[in-house]
Amino acid sequence: MIMDKSRNRAEEVSKDLIPGLPSDLAMECLVRVPYQFQSAMRSVCRSWRSLLSDPSFIGERRRCGKAELLLCLVQPLPPPNPASRAVGETETLLAVEEKGEKRVSCTPRFGFSVYNATISTWNHVAFPDHQIPLFCECVSVQDAGKILLIGGWDPETLQPVKDVYVLEVNGKRWRRGAPMKESRSFFACTSVGSTKVYVAGGHDDQKNALRSAEVYDVEKDEWSTIPSMAEGRDECQGFSMGTGLGGFCVLSGYATESQGRFKQDGEVYDPTTKSWSRIENVWPFADTSPRGRTVVDTRGSSSLRCFTDREFSQRQWESKDGSRKWKLDVEAIQLPTSGSSVYVGSSGGEAVVMIGGRRDSEGVMMKTKEEKDVGKWSHVNDIPFGFSTLPFSHASIYV
């Protein structure tokens, strides 16, 4: 249904694309142009700019099997080379207490990186005029052709922010979106349906765990407050459940007074009833954050994969909320390496693990095999230096 709507819209904006060619044949030509050349295409004429600016163009590329898959990462940048620093340029310093002594360290700088999984290339994407907020959430809205960066910390004051930045992937341009109602960081965030992005939990400027939640309408560029969760949940993970008007699940997290002890349950928001319900036994690792350790498949019934570096006696189980409306098929999967230097994300529905590189080496990207071989890992590629620091958040989108 969505693909049919996309094609109808594409037909509306595809008139007079190439003189002398029928519009459908002209469209078949243009959708085959690689993504890296689309910026130049926008400069050719007004009709091409209009076509490429419309989200239906991505739908047509997917229909023809020509869409490229981008994995977008918010990750710390490597420390700058002091020899290359401009005259007068300084680093932000952060005082840190350690064993009774105060030492000074550099505040990390965050960047926005893109891995093109179709042609296996890595690129840093410029951010206009200022630094990306530290620890901001990255989320994609496929039908709208947008990547959003939400919340996090101001890189100068190190305080939570309400900021929202929107990347139009067709136009490759950033703009400011409407800010959230409340400043927050380390919160749950995900897109639900074709136009909505939900956020909940995290912490405020006093490191208090938040119960509050909001929803962003991508088309209207508006935030609305929704009912609060039953409990405050800091450092929680968000994902959508089901298809269409699905639920928004906030997984685990911890209360203000129990930092580092992660809850085993979650809460699910139902947009139809505008209420929350609790879902039990979905995160069994009380000493580990679910961030960078979960992948969700929402095709059919929702399936949650929890990745761990330890042996686990129970590999699969089912969890339902109190209303019995929402169900999760949960599976624990062994990571390909032990230790904490890993990050698991989803790229086009596949689970991908990034294994961080050290200063003098490269990182590695691996992915799980499907169906009966799930839990078996295959090598995707080596991550070049400059991109091998583990991300804080990620999103994938077809372009």
Task: Explain what the structure shows.
InterPro entries: F-box-like_dom_sf, F-box_dom, Kelch-typ_b-propeller, Kelch_1, KMD1-4. Residues 21-61 form the F-box domain. It comes from Brassica carinata. This is F-box domain-containing protein. Pfam families: F-box, Kelch_KLHDC2_KLHL20_DRC7. This protein is mostly beta strands. It folds into two domains: 2-63, no CATH class; 69-78 and 94-398, Kelch-type beta propeller (Neuraminidase). 10% of the residues lie in helices and 37% in strands. The protein contains five helices and 26 strands. The strands form seven sheets. The chain has a four-stranded antiparallel β-sheet with strand order 5-4-1-26, with no helix packed on it. A hairpin with a 4-residue loop joins strand 8 (164-168) and strand 9 (173-176). Helix 1 (2-12) crosses helix 5 (56-63). The relative contact order is 0.11. Residues 82-105 have low confidence and may be disordered.
In short:
This protein is mainly β and 399 residues long. The protein has helices spanning 2-12, 23-30, 38-41, 46-53, 56-63; strands spanning 69-76, 93-98, 101-106, 110-116, 121-125, 137-141, 146-150, 164-168, 173-176, 188-192, 196-200, 213-217, 222-226, 237-241, 247-251, 266-270, 275-279, 294-297, 302-308, 316-320, 327-334, 342-347, 350-355, 363-368, 377-383, 393-398.
